[in-house]
Amino acid sequence: MAVTLPHIEDSSRTHYIPPVGNYETFTDADHYAEKVKEWGLSAGKEQFWYKDKDHQRLVSIRGYIVYGETDDFNTVIIEFQDGNLSCIHPAYLKEMQSSNFGKAVISNSAAPSSEKPTVPVNVKEPEKKTNTKESKAPKTSKKSAEVKKDKSAKLVLPEEKVHFTAVVRQFALTWNHFNEENDEVVILDKVIIHQDEQIDVGLAWCAHSKTLKKFELAPGEIIEFDGKIVKKKLAKGKDVDEEFIISEPVQYKINNPSKLKKS
Fold it and tell me: Where do the segments described as Disordered lie (predicted)?
């Protein structure tokens, strides 16, 4: 009598790109669903297809890496059934879920890099030589120099989860380029981080998740909560009513607010 052996994935044909150093993990199911939806993937799924030219394998998403000057970009960390971890761009993983994936020849430029992705740096044009006798450096007053310094100063954000107070300013829509649709967000004003040295953030935004919708927030309400803040500029929504457009730049995002209370 023939014995059927369990199927073991052939991992020898997969090129792994393991993450270097630490990476972000999901705090709970809502955080996972929020990020997966942001990447244009199905938030209700726990496994996704990783496809190559001649084979495909099931993978799970274990976390992500944040990079770029404004922390706008992510690299997804996937885990194969044999326990190996690998890095992949979320748009590339989304493309792999299509039934047509693999029919076209994948160019080398589309393959993810083994190193941490970087944002291209604009190349400066060579400076033109000027006659030092004819050109003079503009005079800058001490007062204007101090103002310029203050504007260029950047907030030093805590890396761990911290306690916040804020005022609900409005609801807005932001364009998600992964799933090509608008996502609803909450704009918060007078955001303050409470720790040994209080930090006044000003404006910030967060996803209007299922958890937040349960609180039925309204503009003008004062709230307090725990969360993690990162520098991530809010993108404007596309083809939306004026009431859902934020009129000024919002540079900071609060991830997965929890333990929310209304004052």
Answer: 109-146
C-alpha 234/C-alpha 6 separation (Å) is 48
Residue 250 sits in a domain whose CATH number is: 2.40.50
Question: CA 218, CA 100: separation in Å to the nearest integer?
Answer: 44
Q: Do 131 and 186 touch, CB atoms closer than 8 A?
A: no
Domain region containing 58: 12-110
Residue 155 covered by a domain = no
Weakest-pLDDT range from 43-47, 72-76, 129-133, 249-253: 129-133
Mean pLDDT of 171-178: 86
Task: State which amino acid sits at residue 221.
Answer: E
Query: What's the pLDDT band for 162 if we cut at 50, 70, 90?
Result: very high
Please indicate, yes or no, if residue 60 is contained in any of the structural domains: yes
* Within-domain flag for 79: yes
Which of these three, 85, 110, 135, is where a domain ends?
Answer: 110
139 confidence band (pLDDT: 50, 70, 90): low
